[in-house]
Amino acid sequence: MMKPVIVMTQTSKVQSNLVNIIHKPLIQIQELSFNEHLLNHDYDWLIFSSKNAVKYFYEYLKSVKVKKVAVIGEKTAQYCEDLNINVDFMPSDFSQEGFLKEFNSMNQRILLPSSQLARPKLAHQLNINNVVIKIDLYKPIPHHQNINEVKQLVKNNELDAITFSSSSAVRYYFENGDTPEFHHYYAIGKQTATVLKNYNQNVQVADSQTSESIIAKILESRENNEI
């Protein structure tokens, strides 16, 4: 049996011997300027909600005093480890909801560098019992060439599955030009799946918020002759 051919649309590359991966990020990152005086304060926690947050904040780490670092997700934790950033907390559920459920903090000063378009729930909920300083580090913009190339692959019947790991990627895909009919979308995260459903698409959701889990879900579909 031939390996499934899948498009993975996240910015970070994924490797697997179980499927044939075509890496087509649908998002480009545009760095933003921010008030660097915010780095002059002492913080109890620095929270990274994505690898991109770590990547684009790394140059500022030496300029800010933080006691502890928290992350959402294994990949983000691993990226921190690769950069010798000690991680003090990571939830078992790699979502904003999972983080809020397990992260018990009161009267803490929290620094949250993230995407300008990040879901506001994390910052809003933490701010109820803490002081949260959110920095808009970057914003996603559509990668038009890759979006068009993925749609052409669909038209040519060359794909078995398309995966999404962010709501922004979903919106950019469906709102930039005509979208050919396709029925095998897979999502990392319930929020991403919800956005796909808002575009009247059927979607399979990975059991956990990792690339390995979404590949396992695609292979499960192949075994069930669904793709």
Automatic annotation (TrEMBL):
The keyword Transcription does not apply. Keywords: Lyase, Porphyrin biosynthesis. Transmembrane segments: none annotated. Pathway: Porphyrin-containing compound metabolism; protoporphyrin-IX biosynthesis; coproporphyrinogen-III from 5-aminolevulinate: step 3/4. Residues 19-215 form the Tetrapyrrole biosynthesis uroporphyrinogen III synthase domain. Catalyzes cyclization of the linear tetrapyrrole, hydroxymethylbilane, to the macrocyclic uroporphyrinogen III. This is Uroporphyrinogen-III synthase. It comes from Staphylococcus capitis.
